[in-house]
Amino acid sequence: MEFTATRPECTARAAAVLEQQKIQFVTGSARLDAVSLATINDIAGLLHHCTVGEGMIVVIGGHTDAQGDDAMNYKLSVGRARAVRDALLARGLQPNRLMAIGYGETQPVADNATPEGRAKNRRTTFVWLDEDQQ
Length: 134
Prior knowledge:
alpha+beta, CATH 3.30.1330.60, three-stranded mixed beta sheet, 4 helices
């Protein structure tokens, strides 16, 4: 990859990948679906470029919709963030450069009252931190 790995550039490039390809899970579980493995493959190179040599760490955020129990949604979001982290580790990323955090339903980006809004809220995010911010 030919670009300078800055926090804004890495954020924009990850968002562009996730705009085209979603990371999805088997309903009600933390198991990645088959299509999402291709997305993980595509994003692994980007994450590698952004974390190696630039002193950045990526926080993998798991988010759910507001359907169901708060505690279960939190647990599910943690499991999903960890599943993405594990898949990236299997593709050669360094464990000290990846953090998995579950947010449950606490950071919605859309209205949970509609099916479309709930679908938008079920997502994985990538946020970059400098090493000294962790």
